[in-house]
Amino acid sequence: MTAQLAGLAPCTHCGFCLQSCPTFLVTGDEADGPRGRIELMREFTAGRIPADANGLRYHLDRCLGCRACETACPSGVEYGSALEEVRATLNADSLPITSRIVNYVMQDGGMQRVTFAGARVARAVARHLAGPSSLGFAWGMLDATHATTNKHAAHTTASVQEPRVRVALFTGCIMSGLFSHVHEATARVLRANGVQLMAVPGQRCCGALHAHSGQHADAVTLARANVAAFAQIPEDVYVVANSAGCGALLKEYPRLLSGDPVEEDAMALAERTCDVSEILVELGPTVGGPIPLRMAYDPPCHLQHAQRVTDPPLRILESIPELELVPHADAHLCCGSAGSYSLVEPELSRSILDRKVSTLAAANVDVITTGNPGCIMQIGAGLRAVGDDTPVVHPVELLDRSYAAAGYYGSQRSSTP
User: Fold this and answer.
1) Which 8-state DSSP code applies to residue 306?
2) Peptide bond preceding 285: is omega within 30 degrees of 0, i.e. cis?
3) What pLDDT, in 10s, does the model give residues 168-218?
4) Domain 134-147+285-405 has CATH 3.40.630
5) CATH number of 151-281
6) Fewer CB within 10 Å, N- or C-terminus of the chain?
């Protein structure tokens, strides 16, 4: 038994995980909950049920991989890594065509550029086409990628007088393709906190979509490329991610590349990788101007459950004067995005999202913030589907707006590393 599958051994079937599992809460089916899926994985890896057994792939494919069960588990079951390994066995040659297309686009640089260029053109009309239908929901996801705050600062930057620390920004694929405004806001905010930014050529997609869907070889290829790229920069430079999914996998590269010739470099990269909220809390953050809004924070699953980073995002948001943080009931639950999950399991994904949208709507806020691109798109589309135009933004966008209000930015044109 591999180390990943051995991580399932502590499961005692106590059931504490069930109320944290979005799919179980929707379906009520034990096989759509963590302990049911653990039994399926145990039986499969022990050879007691075949790969084509009725219900095996069905119930495992319906798992979001949100890892909320790991946070809830009192026994320390390592569910996520085991799920990835079993999926790698099951899906090596039979991944759904939608997932294959998405994974191919994210792996091929040329296809990425063409796809995202087309998406940026299309989103100019997305707001007029968003709605509750499946097609309207897809347009709503695209519309949610618009920059919604601090547009007046788009061509400004903060200068670093005396750098306190140096960082390299992990640029990713979806973040670069559709959320370049978040990268620009991140660069401004970091510089305003005394950070010197370094560009790192040769970066690729982090490989999270590939790893989570069972495309292990493709995930390894992308991980090796990123390890090599970041191995070129000095050891004292932090690697900062502003996408929860990317940051989670970067920190797990040592597991993904266990036994690989670059494992040691992967460990070095993981050790100096942090979420943007973590570095900002370590540095302060600098207090900006007031933003008199009511705000709900929805923690991304791969920040709160995979990385176990829960306090830093709240700390940076609480540093903004007059920004009122409004709690909502289902902050611990996944929104149903989960990489390409909303594309391959649209019906269940929407059912999970409906609960999230209802609790956020009940909070009666002016803005919603979350630190992952998929979550921004999913929640944004869900709100638009019910006629709610509440903006969904990244936390650094709010901090960026606060800094602009305080007059921290100069007039130079910005550049994203």
Assistant:
1) I
2) yes
3) 999 999 999 999 999 999 999 999 999 999 999 999 999 998 898 888 888
4) no
5) 1.20.1050
6) N
